[in-house]
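F.,

This is the one I mentioned.
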């Protein structure tokens, strides 16, 4: 393991970044979290402002904090917004990643970049780390460029591809699981895509894995993180409903091809996680267990109330 020191977590006001901060604090690590426009206090730590579009600010922040490791969770993740604003997407998701990786390398810090399962075209699923990336939209292309920049600027960078789910810490912003629960709580049925397949993983299961990967000096390169089973968005929503005490029949099947998204979406982006299981000696969880943990954790980490289980 690397020597003890501060972990810099970008995007700490986001769903995954907030979980990383909490996990690091629970492990006794010194942590500095950053936010863009939503300051937040996590585990007694106040986040600091950092604008990814300002190169000088990025380099100055890394020099000032002098971290032992950087976990870069911050990103522009709205897929349709990225499609409308490609310059912004590449500035935030790609260029800033390269600058952060370079700054981390200059100060001798480890660097981990959080990418996405969407870098694949979704034509077959169960992708390995060595499979060719074929992004089908601007968001995915900008994240893939971010991967390339991280690996080019930092000799021992770690890139992780994943599909997290969990509780948002910012009121007004909902993850997929929160949206499903909110619809059910309000007495509405909902639709789920039967042909959009992924290997999602709960934020609190992901966070310690990211910390372990960035602290292990022998680890570098690309890793896939996710559940060991794949589900469609339809199946995911049904499991959430059932686990929360609602009828899964309130979730209706639809095709993603029929939804009027501005940006195209890949279909099956399930990830093979055998590499990380081998290198960390961990067996990845199944989706149902992650959803059960999500509901157990609701009073501690949710920005929104847990839905009633009476329906």
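My design for it:
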């Amino acid at each position: 393991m690397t020597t003890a020191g501060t972990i810099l977590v970008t995007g700490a006001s986001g769903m995954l970044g907030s979980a990383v901060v909490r996990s690091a604090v629970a492990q006794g690590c010194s942590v500095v979290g950053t936010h863009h426009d939503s300051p937040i206090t996590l585990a007694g730590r106040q986040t600091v402002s950092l604008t990814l579009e300002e190169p000088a600010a990025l380099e100055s922040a890394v020099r000032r904090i002098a971290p032992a490791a950087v976990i870069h969770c911050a990103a522009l993740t709205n897929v349709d917004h990225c499609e409308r604003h490609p310059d912004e997407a590449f500035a935030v998701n790609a260029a800033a990643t390269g600058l952060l990786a370079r700054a981390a390398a200059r100060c001798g810090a480890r660097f981990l970049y959080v990418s996405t399962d969407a870098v694949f075209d979704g034509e077959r699923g169960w992708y390995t780390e060595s499979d060719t990336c074929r992004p089908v939209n601007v968001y995915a292309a900008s994240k893939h460029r971010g991967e390339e920049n991280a690996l080019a600027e930092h000799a021992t960078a770690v890139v992780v591809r994943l599909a997290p789910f969990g509780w948002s810490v910012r009121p007004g912003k909902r993850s997929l699981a929160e949206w499903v629960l909110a619809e059910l709580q309000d007495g509405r049925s909902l639709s789920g895509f039967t042909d959009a397949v992924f290997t999602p993983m709960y934020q609190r299961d992901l966070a310690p894995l990211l910390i372990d990967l960035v602290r292990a000096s022998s680890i570098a390169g690309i890793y896939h993180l996710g559940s060991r089973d794949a589900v469609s968005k339809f199946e995911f929503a049904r499991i959430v409903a059932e686990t929360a005490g609602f009828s899964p029949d309130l979730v209706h099947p639809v095709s993603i091809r029929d939804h009027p998204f501005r940006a195209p979406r890949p279909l099956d982006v399930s990830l093979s996680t055998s590499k990380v299981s081998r290198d960390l000696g961990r067996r990845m969880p199944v989706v149902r267990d992650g959803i059960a943990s999500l509901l157990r954790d609701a009073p501690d980490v949710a920005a929104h109330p847990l839905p009633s289980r009476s329906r």
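Residues 86-106 form the longest helix (21 residues).

Talk soon.
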